[in-house]
Write a structure and sequence with these properties.
The complex is a heterotrimer of chains A (about 475), B (about 170) and C (about 240).
Chain A (H helix, E strand, L loop, with lengths): L17 H4 L8 H12 L4 H28 L14 H12 L1 H12 L9 H22 L25 H21 L3 H9 L3 H11 L6 H34 L11 H28 L7 H32 L2 H12 L3 H18 L3 H5 L1 H25 L17 H21 L8 H10 E6 L2 E6 L4
Antiparallel strand pairs in A: 1-2
Helix pairs in contact in A: 3-17, 4-6, 4-11, 4-16, 5-6, 5-10, 5-11, 6-7, 6-17, 7-10, 8-9, 10-11, 11-12, 11-16, 12-14, 13-14, 14-16
Chain B lengths: L3 E8 L5 H10 L7 E4 L6 H4 L8 H26 L12 H27 L8 E2 L9 E8 L3 H10 L4 E3 L3 E2 L2
Antiparallel strand pairs in B: 1-4, 1-5, 2-4, 3-6
Helix pairs in contact in B: 3-4
Chain C lengths: L7 E6 L8 H9 L7 H6 L7 E7 L6 E7 L9 H4 L5 E3 L6 E3 L9 H4 L7 E2 L26 E2 L5 H13 L12 H5 L5 E5 L6 H6 L4 E2 L11 E4 L8
Parallel strand pairs in C: 1-10
Antiparallel strand pairs in C: 1-8, 2-3, 4-5, 6-7, 9-10
Classes of the chains: A mainly alpha (about 475), B alpha+beta (about 170), C alpha+beta (about 240).
């Protein structure tokens, strides 16, 4: 037997400089790192002010005008009607809760698993979590028939001598979101303290006053670092189950009902996966914009978007798996309403949306994200991730408003179309999220400088054989 | 020991810091009189310093317990205060109780961890403290208290080991 | 008040129902249910606590219209109750009925979504009672504002009234003392209301009929409305 090798041309691998590729192998003096982040915060050109003006206007129209009108006139100005009692507001609520899973996933799960690429992107995604929760938290209020009585859901001793009903998934939901808001805000704040201390040391005037207060008197003593690191570790481990519980409970708002299509035990993990899928996509979208507009190319490199792109692909697989399980069960079960729901999605009024969802959530990510070039290209990744979030929005829209249109008794079938008020409020809330992010990005150091430097200290290049190989040391 | 001075050595590299600490110890300055300020977290064993006793997990656990007890009150206490029956379910149904218990326990844990950090680090305190803004630019500061007569000697020794400067630090209003 | 010994139940004879909607009108009048106008009805915002569901049976030309008067089924295990975060709907131990407390309602509309009979209605706007409807508002029933859920109460005000009269006269409530507005107005006497715990009541007789069934019984909601149907309009 002869060993024959096809005469392929021998190519030596090009010696790539790992320093260009990896942020953590490309250390720069701390003062320089600080300066990049500080410059980004002071970048308030025409684009910034234009964005702030337009977004403020949209917020005013949507949340001031449209919501105010709805409170004054009644819920009838929305498009909801019997039997579709929940509409776009609940869809938006689920969507924004989903977006809020981004930060926690990136900074808690990746921290626990010591995924080093997380370091420069944690802050940006944690901020998304906090602001997405602000927007999400508004929606139950917008959705209430009597918004001005929302505090009746809060458990406190009152003159009505009445406590809330803890049997209700809405109560679980409220407490879970409350926990998550508090948890993720503190989790955003804790690692921020050393960075605002840095900003304090390099600022004057009102900024200095602001950072002084936010830095709480941070000096960077061993004890301070020690407590901070311990707390971050506790938070990272504790907030992961909270994150899972939040979207699980959101799904239980539907799962606990007797409605066919909603009453499904797979809804918990299905929704959590979808939330992370859309959340991580949104992280990519936002960070791509941030990198371009705030000149953070040093910190946010193709390697990071490459890694995020892989995560998105994996969660696209996982989402498809849960989607299919849910679909197949309904299809095979053969209950009349279930069958009707399947028909409703594939041939009914929502069919165009339903197919668009399959394209955005499955076809496009699967066809593109396996490709390293796509994951590293700004425009491609931007479009794919926007598409994923359009697809995920449609998924929630169909589950919330679509499934309500088909009921056990055919007399109770209905239709739903969002009204202008609902559309304006939705645009207003999206604008609020963007406005909060744009404004906060000029106040909050968008990259955790100390975490990046910590990473650069522990990373080095080792020569193994002919190659220079990145290696990681562990400080703790 | 009334006659003491506080000195701060600024170093731009971690490597000589443990040796400098040894120098200080050899001259009778204990670990209690030394503090290290840095812009990046260095664990104690990297610096060759004794471990801090950590009370934070204990505080977190107590917070979780408070959250757990609160959830018990809301789950089991409030239905007793004003009983309302719904949907053929028992007054205190177990499965929903578990959901609430989990959430409130975690809330207690997270909030108390945060408060624990503030308490343990005595935050916020803006009062004058030994500090140098160059710390957040990557310098490592060794703040120590030594007898006044040793000031010059210590300064020279640390400079010889690689310190940028050894000065009597200003007290900054942070 | 003590716990009730009554088990209020309604029987509707589908073989007698002609779909005339007299019960719907009577319900509106008795319970101050607002009339919302054509446009809103077309949107699906009719406020009927009781509505007539019409189904076609058979294929043209051998086609038959069958009607199901539908209202809150007063379930023993009502799915609408546990999901309300503020106890606006709950199971009363006094009347053994599913109660809606308007003043507690904050309008999450969760109960309406979880009702398999879609029997609940929502106040999309503030109610309007244009002349001369405002002259006939029932003083025994509150008028609800916008943002509040409501539903059939089994004319609970009439139940209480009958109980008070019986108490004054020093006798127990007898069969026929309580008649909800829909039953009272039904020209074919298709609706019968009474106490299932009284073995001699008409409702108890009907409940034992081989024509009796409950709607979506398989869900385990244990409704308090019995439908009587022979499956053919000529059976009585």
């Amino acid at each position: 037997m002869s060993v024959e090798t096809k005469a392929a041309p021998l190519v030596w691998p090009e010696e790539e400089d790992p320093r260009e590729e990896h942020l953590l192998l490309d250390p720069r003096p701390r003062a320089e790192l600080n300066q990049i982040v500080l410059d980004a915060m002071h970048r308030t050109g025409f684009g910034f002010w234009a964005a702030v003006t337009v977004l403020s206007l949209l917020v005013l129209i949507g949340l001031g005008g449209a919501w105010g009108y709805q409170i004054y006139k009644g819920m009838g100005v929305a498009g909801i009607r019997r039997p579709v009692y929940w509409g776009v507001y609940i869809t938006n609520f689920v969507f924004w809760i989903g977006i809020s899973h981004s930060g926690t996933f990136v900074s808690a799960i990746l921290r626990v698993f010591k995924a080093e690429f997380r370091r420069p992107i944690t802050r940006g995604s944690e901020m998304m979590t906090a602001f997405a929760l602000v927007v999400a938290g508004m929606y139950p209020l917008i959705h209430l028939g009597r918004t001005w009585r929302f505090y009746w859901m809060v458990p406190y001793p009152n003159q009505r001598q009445l406590w809330p009903n803890f049997h209700s998934p809405l109560m679980w939901d409220m407490l879970a979101i409350f926990t998550y808001v508090i948890g993720s805000t503190l989790y955003l704040y804790l690692p921020l303290i050393p960075d605002v201390a840095m900003a304090r040391d390099h600022s004057t005037g009102w900024r200095h006053k602001l950072y002084r207060i936010l830095a709480l008197g941070w000096r960077g003593t061993e004890a301070e670092w020690h407590h901070l690191k311990t707390a971050i570790t506790i938070f990272a481990f504790a907030i992961i189950p909270v994150m899972f519980s939040v979207h699980t409970i959101v799904s239980w708002d539907f799962g606990m009902t007797m409605k066919v299509g909603w009453h499904s035990s797979i809804f918990g993990p299905y929704f959590v996966t979808g939330a992370i899928f859309s959340g991580v996509s949104a992280v990519a979208t936002v960070l791509l914009i941030v990198r371009k507009t705030m000149k953070l190319e040093y910190f946010l490199r193709p390697e990071h978007f490459d890694a995020i792109g892989k995560l998105i692909l994996i969660f696209s697989f996982a989402w498809t798996y849960f989607f299919f399980s849910d679909y197949l069960t309904e299809w095979y079960g053969g209950e009349a309403v279930g069958k009707e729901l399947i028909t409703f999605q594939a041939h009914g009024p929502v069919a165009p949306l339903w197919y668009l969802m399959l394209i955005m959530n499955i076809a496009i990510p699967w066809l593109t994200l396996w490709n390293r070039r796509v994951r590293r290209s700004t425009w491609w990744l931007f479009l794919v991730t926007i598409g994923v979030n359009i697809g995920m929005y449609i998924e929630r829209y169909i589950i919330v408003t679509g499934f309500l249109q088909r009921n056990r008794l055919p007399f109770d079938w209905g239709v739903y179309n969002p009204s202008l008020v609902e559309v304006l409020i939705s645009i207003g809330s999206l604008s609020l999220f963007m406005l909060l992010y744009v404004v906060a990005s000029r106040f909050i150091p968008l990259v955790p400088v100390w975490e990046v430097q910590e990473g650069q200290i522990t990373h080095s290049l080792r020569r193994i054989g002919r190659a220079l190989v990145p290696s990681v040391a562990e400080l703790e | 020991m009334n006659d003491t001075t506080v000195l701060m050595a600024l170093v731009d590299d971690l490597a000589p810091v443990p040796d400098m600490l040894d120098t200080l110890r050899e001259n009778g300055i204990g670990d209690g009189d030394i503090a290290i300020l840095s812009g990046v977290p260095y664990p104690e064993r990297v610096l060759g310093r004794p471990m801090n006793w950590e009370r934070l997990p204990l505080i977190s656990a107590s917070g979780a317990l408070v959250g757990f007890l609160t959830s018990m009150f809301l789950n089991a206490g409030t239905p007793m205060l004003y009983s309302i029956y719904v949907g053929g379910q028992p007054l205190i149904p177990l499965p929903p109780t578990a959901v609430l218990t989990f959430e409130l326990t975690m809330m207690g844990l997270l909030v108390s961890t945060f408060l624990g950090v503030l308490w343990e680090s005595t935050f916020p305190t803006f009062g004058p403290k030994y500090y140098d803004p160059r710390i957040t630019d990557g310098e490592i500061g060794i703040v120590f208290r030594c007898p006044a007569h040793q000031t010059g000697e210590m300064g020279t020794a640390l400079m010889a080991q690689g310190a940028q400067e050894v000065t009597e630090p200003e007290e900054h209003v942070l | 008040m003590t716990e009730t010994t009554h088990r209020w139940t309604m029987a509707i004879d589908l073989d007698r129902c002609t779909g005339c909607q007299a019960c719907v009108v009577a319900c509106h009048a008795e319970n101050n249910v607002p009339v919302v106008g054509e446009d809103e009805v077309r949107m699906g915002r009719a406020m009927h606590w009781l509505h007539i569901e019409r189904y076609w049976v058979g294929e043209y030309p051998n086609i038959q219209a069958r009607f199901i008067p539908m209202m809150c089924q007063q379930c023993e295990n009502a799915p609408c109750e546990p999901v309300c975060p503020v106890f606006a709907t709950y199971h009363s131990q006094v009347e053994d009925l599913n109660i809606q407390v308007y003043n507690r309602c904050i309008g999450t509309r969760y109960c309406a979504n979880n009702c398999p009979y879609i029997a609940r209605t929502f106040n999309w706007f503030n109610p309007e009672f244009p002349e001369p409807l405002n002259e006939q508002l029932n003083p025994d029933v509150t008028v609800r504002k916008r943002g509040i859920m409501e539903k059939c109460t089994f004319c609970i005000q009439r139940i209480h009234d009958a109980e008070h009269v019986a108490e004054i006269e020093g006798r127990p409530v007898q069969d026929g003392d309580v008649q909800p507005a829909c039953a009272q107005s039904c020209p074919t006497n298709a609706i019968v209301f009474g106490d299932l715990n009284d073995p001699n009541s008409r409702i108890s007789q009907l409940a034992g009929s081989r024509r009796s069934s409950r709607l979506l019984e398989e869900l385990g909601t244990e409704p308090s409305v019995i439908y009587l149907s022979g499956g053919d309009a000529h059976v009585s």
